[in-house]
Amino acid sequence: MRVLLTGSAGFIGTAIGATLEDEGHEVVRVDLMLPMAHGSSSVPDGTHRLDVRRAGEWAHLLDGVHAVCHQAAVVGAGVKVGDLPDYAGHNDLGTAALLAAMHEAGVRRLVLASSMVVYGEGRYTCPEHGDQAPPPRNVSALDDGDFENHCPVCGAVLGWALVHEDARLDPRSSYAASKVAQEHYTSAWVRQAGARAVALRYHNVYGPGMPRDTPYSGVAALFRSSLERGEPPQVFEDGGQRRDFVHVEDVARAVTAAATSPADDGTAAVSPEDGLVAFATDPLRGHHDV
Fold first, then answer.
1. What are the start-end ranges of the H helices in the chain?
2. Element (H, E) at 38
3. Whole-structure pTM value
């Protein structure tokens, strides 16, 4: 199978490309090599340095392609209002341009890199009042050392619970908003183009090749870098936070399965317990989670 892989030179993209090739597939690699993600790294051999936002200009690379794995994105939380155009441009416009180019080329299968950030801060429950969506924490309470979320009904401290794949979407950053938009563009494309897609909502990905000292560094990479410098990892607030992690090789296997599975509805065997949620779409069934 011939697979086009955007963001191929990135941490996750590199692992996906290797897994695809290990399973005998031909990989067409595309990466813009943004300095914020790759620093001054040279372009890897066999990589087409191209902008996904201008996918119509390199649509010839889609000739003979059976599926596209779309990893290219600006990531990180997006802490400044000035970051909004970068997220909207690379992630939202880039996805829309790619989908349009795929349609023109007759490519009808996509695996989209989404993220658990679409769920917001997680799931909170009150012993008396059940699941609750707490309001933003009060700055004065944080200054006083109260880092908990409280029930908006009774004020009790809310407990944490597992987030299920059917949880409501609650994007709270530029990056999260762009991931929700990517999913919605993909869903619209599936219906309009008679195509099929799977969006994998990654949790915190770690493993060999983790980036460091860039906005792309997750907490695992930051902790590793601190330990390598002989420094204790920096933990904010009271240290009671909890995170789910998924190994990059598991992500690569899931993406490969989703891209190459013979299933008619485009779904793959991916479990939330593995730190991945597959949001599958097809024109007849709408969307569902697997």
1. 11-22, 35-38, 84-86, 94-105, 139-143, 174-193, 219-228, 248-260
2. helix 35-38
3. 0.86
